[in-house]
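Batch job 17 of 40 flagged for manual review because the log was empty.
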Amino acid sequence: MTTRIGLISFAHLHAHSYAAQLKKLAGRCEISGLYDDDPARGREIASQLGISFIETCGGLLDASDGVVICSENSKHKDFVLQAAEAKKTILCEKPISTNLTDARIMIDACEKAGAALMIAFPCRFSTPVFRAKQLIQDGKLGEIIGMKGTNRGTMPGGWFVDKALSGGGAVIDHTVHVLDVWRWILGREVTSVYAEMGTQFYPELSVEDAGTLSLEFEGGIFATLDTSWSRPNKSFPTWGDVTLEIVGEKGSITVDAFNQKYDVYNNDAVKAEWTYWGDDIDFGLIQSFLNVVEGKTPSPITGNDGLKALEAALGAYRSAETGQPTALPLA
């Protein structure tokens, strides 16, 4: 039987990629329709994709086995609660929410309803990241001493720079990806975070476009993270990067999650471009989500994973306000 996947909101740019991955898996799944609380946007995109626009969220849930939620961050809770009440399997875009209270409400509702909740952290499906995890688990680096990471991208604009909808700027947008990867690789939690942040590249913004985090994990492992919108929108070859450097007693690993690419110099584009030949991490994410919908596996990226990554970002904001390290977990 074909698995029916509904799409809720195209506010987030990742929704376009997730829809494309679902179409690649035609035969295994079908897109049951699209609901968007911006009807004009929803109808236009549904027409482009050749799928049905469904007028109500309830109607979409009735037609679906699972749903992919790509709304503005502050709206995740309402859509997740509706999907949980309908007992649908849920893939929720990151960050799970803009605050811990809503995140906990979402997790509890899904647990009580028996609705599997998965958070969209596709970097787990990068082969370089997975190989780093394997090597560390096999003890090739010995005890881990320290780490450095980056998630530097272009400034997305729109609702991403409206704190009421996004929860913040570059720090909440980019911290969660690398934090999830580090937690997944190490199997350890963050115990404190110190952060400095501000508006360095786009002075007109009311949210931060740059941040530097210093973190400590259980066992005394230190890490630093550059989370910024520091890549120029018009000239940079792609949206940004995810890189890791991990140092252990026996050696070190350098990871560039998106380095499976060709460098292309295009006179028509009047700039260098990157053409990817390697992993499609969104495809891996969607395949994994379908396994959950079909009952083959439990959610590999749980609501608690989303909460812990969010907690580190929120701890960074508290640290920037106080000028002091913030202990985690947050009260």
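Reviewer: the log was empty due to a logging misconfiguration, but the result itself is present. DSSP finds ten helices and 14 strands in the chain. Unflagging and moving on to job 18.
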